[in-house]
Amino acid sequence: MTAAPTSPPPAPQPLSVFFFDLLHLDGADLLDEPTSERLSSLDAIVPPEQRVDRLLTGDVEAAQRFLETTLAAGHEGVMTKSPTASYEAGRRGAGWLKVKPVHTLDLVVLAVEWGSGRRTGKLSNIHLGARDPATGGFVMLGKTFKGMTDAMLDWQTARFLELADGPTDGWVVKLRPEQVVEIAFDGVQTSSRYPGGMALRFARVLRYRDDKSPAEADTIDTVRAFYDRE
């Protein structure tokens, strides 16, 4: 009997540990202590090289430089915390704010879904597409219903009924690709759901661009450039 061949074990990967907060020390919970006290306790027991870089400042320019340095190091952003905030497990609360770059794209609305709940009777969730110069068509990148005010919902319901390309009594209403929308997003991620293999992360509507035609919308190549930088 011979043993079946096995793959060699993976090469060891170096790991580094960095600490950013302290919740329990010497039998005492620190959850209700302010951030400044927890960090002071952390500094007393963890050497600087094992602590996450941080800056305490009220200077906007200094904060901006710290953010730029963090981004240059390959991180997606920073977390700002109130020095007086307690630690709320499982949520950031009002004392924590994530700060990272916001990107925008001008995309074309390909279809829209009827809303539910308080959005019943409104065309809400829009399907977003980037222009494909190679085919002259559009590549879907995801959907969003975020960022829409009540006034915007009223406007887009009327507008998209005008652009309907087929029946409007189903859940999804297909549109003629004529409406450009400016979308903010946090990044581009891999997705097997959409034909381009990519999807926008945390997409939300900023405004509709009636000053732009679909031929002026951003291309799938522009989206792919964002993806390659991730």
From TrEMBL:
EC number(s) reported in the record: 6.5.1.1
Organism: Mycolicibacterium agri
Known catalytic reactions: ATP + (deoxyribonucleotide)n-3'-hydroxyl + 5'-phospho-(deoxyribonucleotide)m = (deoxyribonucleotide)n+m + AMP + diphosphate
Name this protein carries in UniProt: DNA ligase B
Alphabetized UniProt keyword annotations: ATP-binding, Cell cycle, Cell division, DNA damage, DNA recombination, DNA repair, DNA replication, Ligase, Magnesium, Metal-binding, Nucleotide-binding
Function: DNA ligase that seals nicks in double-stranded DNA during DNA replication, DNA recombination and DNA repair.
GO BP term (any one): DNA replication
Occurrences of domain ATP-dependent DNA ligase family profile (ranges): 17-132
